[in-house]
Amino acid sequence: MNDKIEIPRDDVSRLDDKLWKDAESAGYHLNPDEEVTRGLVKGLLVNEKRYGYYAYPCRLASGEKKKDLDIICPCDYRDPDLAAAMLSDINYREGNLGHTTRRSFAQIQPPLPRIL
After folding, report:
1. pTM to 2 decimal places
2. What CA–CA distance (Å, rounded) separates 70 from 29?
């Protein structure tokens, strides 16, 4: 799909504010890097316009809501991804890289997981 979907900045700000409140109330914290977080929020809004639902932008959506239920924000992979990111971040800090690599979104400070 080559059509560029424009998302107004105000829409990104509104959803970003809502997601911050929702995350905090559920015991999660969004990534403090505003550029990263807003990029993901914008991706959610693009996918909402494209598919009619908030398919998480880090996963490939089919365009069929029934098939994509596992990747609608918050997706079913949130907690396993956070656990893997936390382990990767801890291994990186301790120098135990082994087979793990630090992922750019893994800006997690235990014990509080971060989403988006």
Report:
1. 0.70
2. 21
